[in-house]
Protein 1
Amino acid sequence: MPAYIQAVSQLGEKIKLIQDADATGETALAYDEWRAKSGRMQMPGILKCFGARPDFLRQVLAFSDTIHFSEGHLSRRHKEMIATYVSFLNRCPY
Amino acid sequence: MPTNEEQAVTKIKVVEDADATGEVAEAYDYWRASSGRKKVPGILKSLSARPDFLKQAVDFSNTIQFSDGHLSRRHKEMIGSYASYLNSCPYCLDSHAFFLKTQGATDEAVAAFMNGDLERANLTSAELALMKYVELVSKAAYRTTPDDVQKLRDAGWKEEQIAEAVYIIALFAMFNRIANAFGVPVQNYVAMGRMTP
């Protein structure tokens, strides 16, 4: 990854994320649902960005599975090519 | 710019109301039942290649845009209108400036949003700060800084309102690109003063 893209993630904290340990109520439930489904423990940063609206977080997970993380009219492989190149163009190192 | 969407052809083919069968017809009916309207808007017809995704888009749009949340529906329509202006999306600019009017904005304010002329939109200083942030994220989210977010806090916006503003700006980044890539014809809601049924 070029340094100018890598550097984007080094600007410091901007909007506060709800971290795994601080999640309560609906946010904690939505995080737990993701953990149960994925079999992983630590919430990825991109999903913690949605901690302020756990109802929307659930919908984001659902439509991401529908349209991105599965075969469709395009193969998953071609979808990941698209996502990788778009992220490069948009300078999103994450 | 075509003024009659019946005669306009999109760049990428979509399934028209009359031609919809099976899952697509079912998804169109799902939207009709949820909205109480009849004619499926162009932006939703753009999703006809994936009716399962279309139904999810109807649902998440209702959750995050077409309702009050941490931000009021009115502020969401300001964000949607201004993001659509910045992204040069005539279809979304027209429809969301119209929705802004339904949320109590004056004709003068709606006209100002239609032209991206926020000085004439009679906004509070907090709303202007929010619109400045819409511009920063829409043009280059990667370039925003902790200080840009602090300016919003200083203007009185709470953390969860700033977070929700980002979801809405991103939602419009998505729908503006879909509308412009398909070439969805503008509906002229603002000029007509009403939506199509």
Protein 2
Amino acid sequence: MVKASALYIVIIIALVIGVLCSALIVEAYFYKMQYQKKFRYEALQNNLSSGINILLNTGDTSYLYEKTFSLFNGTADSVSLKKIPWGLYDIGIVEAFIQRDTIYKTFSFANTVDSAKWAALYIIDEDRLLSLSGKTTIRGDAYIPKTGVKAAYVDNRAYQGDKRLIIGHTHFSEKKLPDLFSGRLDQLNSMYAEPHENDSALFKKDTIRQSFLLSTRFINFKKQVQTIKNINLNGNIVLLSDTAIIIDSSAVLNNILIFAKSISVKTGFHGTCQLFATDSIAVDHNCRFNYPSCLGVLRFSKVNATATQAKIVIGANCNIEGTIFTYEKTETALKPMIDLAKYVKIKGQVYSQGILKLKDSVEVDGSIFSSRFLYQSSLTLFENYLINIRIDSKALSPYYLTGDLLPVASKNKKILQWLEAN
Amino acid sequence: MNSKIKGSTIVEVVISMVVIVTVFGIAMMILSNVLRFSLSAKKLRAQAILWEVMLKTEQTKDNTAQTFTIDDFRVEQEAKTYNDNANLIEIHLVAYDRNQQKVSELQKIIVNTND
């Protein structure tokens, strides 16, 4: 016997409809939640992008301390901006938040090159000829003394380069190099002058990664000579020393700053860092500094007559991508020197306030600003001779960015490297 | 052919009808609410259009106030200097539908490269 049981059937149908309705509600809820999340994320990205544009295009110092504000005076457009001077460059920290959602980006930024000031070569006018010999190539605009440039026969070698001598426009140089930007120099000087909180616990680990969202970790070795080895240092870290720092090839340095009296880099080192010394930087052969790195010797205080010559010595076969510069606030008789050994390759800029000593087969993709060149053969010392040197400003990447310290920097700032994001 | 079919009583049928009508009524209410409160395709489309317009404005550097029509939407673009900084322009885009109702808006600060 089959029962009609209309009530049972209705209850089952009602249950099925109930389940379908519940599924519909849950689906609609999750869809809305996910879409709102996506919408908030897009709005955050939009605000983040606006914040980055503000940071890149505001020249004043108002963002040296973290500043949180509403972009358009709305309820969902809060951003937090901060700028940290980081050696030759700046670090930007931008956070955008809506309710409990936050996204952030940290990046380094620098200036584009001002094409009106850019030159492959700038040698000051000391009423000396610039002589070229061997397979020397200068490609790009050049600022040369009024006495001009000529081909020369040196060490039994004639000039074998392009007949034009300089492949580009030539201009007359001044008696002095264009000045470095004093604001950036003051900021670099403050790293030596101001006391910093010392974080000595760092060397108990083999890897230290400090986010730029956190405060900078300063490690001050004071008067103790320290060798940096078997350690990976990454990010917002500054090493300071009143004496020498030795960097071993086993050290992995990424975006950190080092300020010391003298810095010695051992053979085979690879890394990205900015080194600043008051006396000397010595880089052994076969080292590689990736972009954006910097080697700079800075003398802010007046030195006595017995002080050693400020110098940067780069060993053979080194590759340096970034900037090498010397600066002396008060000129001394013993001019600061940059000494580049054989087969050194530089992608970037060399700014030598004093002497630039070059050996055979040095290649510079970028520019050289120098007061004087020096070439030493086994017997003779030649002044303002370029022998078997290649300087090619066109070979530098069009995306190359320079620090505002150097006189070729334009006012436009662009992102150099993305560092952190979520 | 010996099986018998027992018919439902009138009371059972009435109760069943009441229950089924109530359940259907509730289901329809839920459905209409879900449809009413879910995101409209129109709004999504307007947002996508504003993003595209903003991207084009950034690329073409066309930082002028203007109105244009895309699909069924009228998009109004306003541009003004941000915080007296000549390097920065605040772009405000608003999308209106056929009934001149505001559907979506988007604001962004972009770099002024007209200088």
Protein 3
Amino acid sequence: MNFDLSVINDNWSYLLFGRTADGEIGGLLLTILMSLSAGLLALIFGILTAVISWRFQGWTRRLLYSGAEFIRSIPLILVIFWLYFLLPRFLGRNISGVTTVILSIAWFSAASVMHATLSGIEALSFGQVEAGLASGMSYWQVLRHILLPQAVPNLIPSYVGLFVALIKDTSLALVVNVPELTTVANQVNSRTQIYPAEIFLFIGVIYFVICTVLSELPRVLLKRSNQRLKFANGI
Amino acid sequence: MNSFYFDWSGVLTGSPAAWLVAGLVNTILITLTGTVVASLLAIVLLLGRTSSANYARYPVQAIIMAFRNTPLLVQLFFWYFAVYPALPEWFRDWVIADHWFSPLPSGFRCLSPEFVCACLGLSWFTGAFLAEELRAGLKAVPAAQSEAALTQGFSHWKTFRYILLPQAMRNAWQPIVGQYLNLMKLSSLASGIGFAEIIYSTREIESFNAHAIEAYAVGTLLYLILGLLMGQLFVFFGPGQIKRNTVAARVASSGWLRRLSFLS
């Protein structure tokens, strides 16, 4: 295989930015923006549902669990198709493909965030809840001031892992023709025909760098904070 | 809100039904082959990843990272557009030749270039994840286990095969099952390169008679059933909890009478 990097040279700005200059955000920029917004939504809804199912055990929790179970047991591609067809019908107006994909991925990932957060909260000893309640705090205050501040820092590595998976999932936006990185690469490949290896290796490297840096980050940070802790303790 | 008119006969009769059956067959086929190939790859990758030789460990580590940290869809495109045309011609001829097993009802095929690429993509992707799960399971096996096996005269390979791997699999069984289920769900991405599985069939129906919602409902149901069946199978054939039925356990738990009858 000989590599001919001229195809990258000719198309790199289309791959990175799509038609952003013409007002339609695309390429890597769209991938990043979609990941960030879907990640934020998934974090908010995941923690919210975890808190609700922690506070209201019984039917509420069972309902949330089965919702999460359902969404995790069908392929993400189907979730995207469902929302793509049903959302405009329910809302009575057109929804852009970008919004559909963001909502699908956020919903899909929120289920995992919920499970992770709930197990993080429940890993803390129940005596803390009892102590908080005995001191006259409400359940919400216990959660807000005692449980979440302890649980969330421990959960950061698993949140980052879920975010990396989410970034990779944004490539599925291809199926509803949203012009993110994978879609524009596919377009360039169909147009040029003879440079598939160069194009897909190029965007593979982009995804690889983003995902590797992100997934190694918590480990490096943790190591550094441990070292600082050791240093502070004089070890 | 608009009302929906469901017309199931547009999905469950005639050629749409045949497409769905063919899609289901292809999804099951790719799941089975992918599972087998991914497991074999995972063991090879695991051996390299845990090897003490740097020239084996570092490249394998890089391969695992590359497959884990890029989207499967991009990998599938790479296999399909870049690698497959570079494969030897006799192989490609064999893939597209008419075999007795390749035609499915309704003109779909089971052995096709798309099948080969989907199999490659899914196996390498899942294999890399499986290797890491197994490595985590292997870490939890006490070092004394392999030391004991080596002093008993087991070779390195036999220690791995009979002592370490079974325990690693038992330790990591839950995440391993999760990876296999994921392989089944991710096979839906192979519709992106035109592999005729369930999602491909539903899209065919959508463009054939516009019964998109019904087709997606059937597709969703098929995936739910497949996932449920696979989960049950893996629990049934899995290592499960540590069995209390070994001779040592029976001796330890039995009273003196049973112990006497065991000795006699």
Protein 4
Amino acid sequence: MAPAGPSATIPDETTLLARMQAGDDDAFEACARAYCGRLLVVARRILQNEEDARDAVQDALLSAFKGIAGFQGQSRLGTWLHRIVVNAALGRLRSRRRHPERSIEELLPHFGEDEHQIDPPTPWKATSERIVQQQESCEVVRRCVSQLPEIYRTVLLLRDIEELDTEETARILDTSPGVVKTRLHRARQALRSLLDPYFREGEV
Amino acid sequence: MNCREFTEFLHEYLGGNLPAEELAEFEKHLAECPWCVAYLDSYRKTIQLERAALAAPEDAPPPADAPEELVQAILRARPRAS
């Protein structure tokens, strides 16, 4: 769902881009109006704070406007803006004062001497489309995601939700693809542990 | 393959990146271990739930409904060509 897709509210990209590159004020306004809302959704997901998210969108759009002359149209305008806002949000995330975080270790599976999990996994309820879409389930899942340590939550968002590939995620986070893979796996394992009490069979 | 190795290989398995030999061992373990069947199933459901919950923008304004004050702030801050 990541990059801003075409919609009735987005003017023709090629024309819009050409007008912005020609310095047309109305085109910049049209671009801000067309993309601001969807970029804000991305920034909110990463920053979990409305004020920071708005600042990140503002930084991102201003930076995009400044660099618009150099944008060659290698990707769609929406995709380019999406990447810029992800970077702006991550920059803010890094500079934000860090809170003490829960260790990921306690949320990963633990094994006994026989190499079986100490707390054997229990089957989960069927997750039908209806259950997955339920407001209540979604709230539980969002709450659990927000409990993940930040470096794991960030990788989970970039890979699973913003749909960046491993290499691009590694580049943005200034780390290696191997680290991204490990963090994503751990993030999912930890999230699974957090969700387990809510979704195991027999729970309401 | 034991349960510990199973969980380590899980990510590559779901990505379709396990070499044939490890894949055979992974599937052999899966056929024998109900705990790992449950773990794999819940891991998959975790991804499904997480994607549905986060991609469904609970508080997302429709794209055209960007906060006006934010749009104005951006337009005011944009340097104009002289």
